[in-house]
Structure formats: C-alpha cells, structure tokens
Specification:
The complex is a heterodimer.
Chain A: H1 13-42, H2 48-66, H3 74-83, H4 85-120, E1 132-133, E2 135-138, E3 146-149, E4 162-164, E5 169-176, E6 181-185, E7 192-197, E8 203-208, E9 214-218, E10 231-234, E11 246-253, E12 258-262, E13 272-274, H5 280-296
Antiparallel strand pairs in A: 1-13, 2-3, 3-6, 4-5, 4-13, 5-6, 7-8, 7-10, 8-9, 9-12, 10-11, 11-12
Chain B: H1 5-21, H2 28-43, H3 60-71, H4 81-92, H5 98-116, H6 122-147, H7 157-181
Helix pairs in contact in B: 2-3, 2-7, 3-5, 3-6, 3-7, 4-5, 5-6, 6-7
Classes of the chains: A alpha+beta, B mainly alpha.
Chain lengths: 297, 184
C-alpha cells in the first residue's frame, strides 16, 4: 500500500510554511537531544533525578508483579541443560561424594576452632544487618546493567552502599529515591571491583562484561595464574566493598586474566541486603582526589 | 433436561458483539490517545520484573513507535521523536538524551525513506524496521560508551535478532490498535 502523501499540502502557502516549520522543529529537536546527551555524558549523574522519578512512579507495578518473577537469562541455560544432562549428572554425583568428605572435615575443624576460640577468649563480632530489599526490575533493553531496588532513602539507604545476595556480591547503589534505589550490578562494564583469589589472596580487579559474566585481571600483569574453578572473593581494597564477600567462579582463562561468573545471579536472587560502606574515610579521600584530578584537567 | 439459558446467552452475546462492531463512531480522543499511549506503555515495559543478565529485551518503545510511523506516515509531527525518545530515556537506563536524539533521527530518516520508496510491501517495511532497530541499538551502545565503560558490539547480537523477529508481531498489534482507534 502506498502511504498517503502528506508532503505537499496543495498550493496553500500557509500549509507549505507550516510543513517547513515542522522540519525545522524536527532538526531543532534532534539538536536539543544531542545537547542533553552531551550534558549527561559530561555529568553522568546529572539527570538521575528524572530516572529516579520514573522508577518511583512505576515501582508499585514492579513490586506487585515482583512476586511473579521471570528470568529471561534462564532461557538459554534451560535449553542447553537438556543437551548435557547425563554427563552433568555424573559430574555432579562425583562432586557430591567429594563434598561430603570435605563437609565432614569442615565439621571437625569447626568443633576444633570453637574449642580454640574459647581457650583464647575471643568473641565473634556480630555483623550489622542492613536493609533487606528486592530487585524489582533491570534495564533489560539497554546495554547498561542497572537494577531497581524496592527500598530507598525511607529505609536509610545511601549512595555508594554495596549490595549483596545470599550467594555473593550483587552491586552497589548509584542513586537513591524516596522508596526505590538504583543498583549498578557487578556485571556492568562500568563497575570495577577489587578482588582476590580466595585460595592465596592473589590481588586482582573485576570488570563487568555486560553479559552476565565478569573479567578478572590480576594487578601484577604478565603472569596469568588463574585456572578454571578458582573462587574469587572481594579483597576490601579501595574501601568500598567489604573483604571476603564471595564474588565469582572462574570459568576460563583469557589473554590477560580470566572470565568468571558471579555467584549472585540477580535473576535468582529474590532478596538482597545493603551493607555499610567498608571504610567511608578511604572512599571519601579517593573521591576528593578524583575531583581534584578532574579540576586540574 | 436441557436448560434454555445457554442458547439465550449465546444470542444475546453475539448480538451485543456485532452491535459493538457495526456503526461505531470514532472518538477523537481515542484516535489521538491510543497511538501515543501505546508507545509510552511500551517504553515503560522495562519496569516489569524482568531480570536480564544481558541486554536481551527488545526496545519495544522504539518498535511500536516505528510500527505506527510506517503504518500511518502522517500520524505524528516531525518533531515527535524528541518527546517520545526522552520519555524512553527515563526508563531505559541509557544516558539521558540518547533516545531523544536517536528517535529524532529515526523520524527524519523515515521521511527520507518515504520520499524514495513510495510503494512498499510488508517485507520491505520489515526490512526498514529491522535496519532502524539494529542501527538504533548500535548507536545507543556507542552513546553508552561515550558516558561510561561499555562492552563490545557483539553483546547486542541476540537482542537485535530477537527484536527483528518480533517486529512483525508489534506491527500486527499496532494494526489491531489502529482498527480499534478508527472504529473500522
């Protein structure tokens, strides 16, 4: 079907000028948008108030439907699970056997540990429990990996707080609204997490790859000691993330490090918890020096 | 014993059904509101509890926008890309202004397409929609890369394929909305 032509509105001068004006407006609109884009590139947090307002408005719907969770990320995994079910079953059975022995050893160690602690008179410090909240939605169509948290400043959440799930680190808060907060997930390419290998404390840092995995690069470049199955935990460097939070499992080596899958999959983490910033003083000093550097430039 | 009730209900229901379809009058409010509301709602779809590990959800706001524009070229003024795009930015997570710019360029580009391809069939419309969506996603990723660290373009491949395959469905949905809107 040929579209009805509205490009030449007859011989009326008025109508022709009107059409020309819409062209001018359209180009002007594009320029305005380009200007806004430049502003938001120069100051990435500048328009976060608008986004917060948007998520505040839609939060009731997100919360209501949150009980019926759907995970897009599961689709591919479920399909591929059919193909290697038998071999996976074998591998899992072997792993269960191995783990059972390790568990027995661990139980014995725990008893011994408790006895030694009593001897020394040590008291374990109770961890402070943060705000428990739900991840209600993500930026599923954008290449940024942001999630919306179901609680905000009403529960005392502040920008910068790390977020963890039962399995491990999820991300950190980047903006807070009255009843929602925006979380930058660890899988975002903009999120850098100081980590270490759990076995020997080898320092490294993790950057998101935006596809559900992270890349781990050792701080001492040149050596690449990672191997499949290594467990990565946070190191506490930088003062933002507390140390020894389970972080990721190494999937395989790359040229300059390794690819790892975070333990906490936001799609299967119904509840998350905020944690206090590990060393607020260090974070504040670093932020101040960053600002000074920017001012020098 | 057979109850006469089902038969009665059937006749009544079918009559009311035809009554609702024949000789309806167009409501000017619905005529303008339905296309606009459909684009805005499609932009807000990211508020649903879809937890995706990678960008996979098609840019539904843009797809509905393009579908309406392909179906009814004069439905919105040329500058409509700006307000719709900025609204999409609030919910998409992209840097603010990226949608406004991309959607404005889409409007201008479609005006060009209309000049050169006057007689089009469904397949060509699908191709145009596919090219627009793929380009919009790639340019959107580039804008993200200007503001933050961004991943490589390969990450968009599943999303582009899914969006292109879903586009005809969006067009059909808009066509149904259109026939409801115009009471035809």
């Amino acid at each position: 079907m040929a579209p009805p032509s509205n490009r030449r509105p007859g011989y009326s001068r008025k109508a022709q000028y009107g059409l020309f004006a819409t062209y001018v407006l359209a180009v002007a609109g594009a320029l305005v948008a380009a200007l806004l884009l430049v502003i938001s590139i120069a100051d990435p947090t500048g328009f976060s108030a608008l986004r917060t307002a948007g998520s505040e408005v839609t939060a009731p719907i997100s919360r209501f439907l949150g009980s019926i969770r759907r995970s897009f990320g599961d689709m591919g995994e479920n399909m591929s699970a059919y193909f290697d079910a038998a071999s996976k079953n074998d591998a899992l059975n072997r792993e269960v056997e191995a783990n059972r022995q390790k568990l027995n050893d661990a139980a014995a160690l725990k008893v011994e540990n408790n006895r030694l602690r009593k001897l020394l008179g040590l008291v374990e410090q109770a961890e402070e429990i943060g705000v428990i909240a739900r991840l209600v939605s993500t930026s599923a169509s954008s290449s940024r990996r942001l999630a919306t948290l179901s609680e905000g400043s009403n529960k005392g959440i502040v920008t910068g707080q790390p977020i963890r799930g039962p399995a491990g680190l999820v991300g950190r808060i980047i903006s807070v609204g009255p009843t929602t907060a925006s979380v930058l997930l660890v899988t975002d390419a903009d999120n850098v997490v100081p980590v270490m290998r759990a076995a020997d404390g080898l320092p490294a840092f993790a950057t998101g790859l935006s596809n559900g995995t992270v890349s781990i690069r050792p701080i001492n470049l040149g050596v690449n000691p990672f191997k499949k199955g290594d467990v990565i935990v946070t190191s506490g460097n930088g003062g933002l993330y507390p140390p020894n939070i389970p972080f990721a499992l190494v999937l395989g080596k790359t040229d300059d490090g390794a690819t790892a899958r975070p333990f906490a999959d936001p799609g299967r983490t119904p509840f998350v918890m905020t944690m206090p910033i590990y060393e607020p003083e260090v974070v504040a000093i670093e932020a101040a020096s960053d600002e000074a550097e920017q001012a020098e430039e | 014993m057979k109850s006469p009730l089902p038969a009665m209900m059937r006749t009544r229901r079918s009559r009311s059904r035809y009554q609702s379809e024949i000789d309806r009058s167009q409501s000017p409010v619905w005529m303008t509101v339905i296309p606009i509301a459909s684009v805005l709602l499609a932009s807000m779809i990211t508020s649903l509890p879809i937890i995706a590990a990678q960008p996979l959800l098609p840019p539904l706001g843009l797809m509905v926008f393009v579908a309406w524009r392909l179906m009814r070229p004069g439905i919105w003024p040329m500058w409509a890309g700006l307000p719709f795009g900025l609204f999409d930015d609030i919910f998409s997570g992209q840097p603010f202004g990226s949608g406004g710019l991309i959607w404005s360029l889409v409007m201008l580009g479609m005006e060009l397409v209309d000049t050169y391809m006057i007689w089009r069939d469904h397949w060509q419309d699908w191709l145009i929609g596919a090219i627009i969506i793929a380009l919009a996603l790639l340019v959107g990723l580039w804008f993200v890369g200007l503001a933050y660290n961004a991943p490589g373009a390969v990450i968009l491949l599943p999303q582009i394929i899914l969006s292109v395959l879903l586009f005809p469905l969006v067009v059909r949905l808009c066509a149904r909305l259109d026939s409801w809107r115009l009471a035809t």
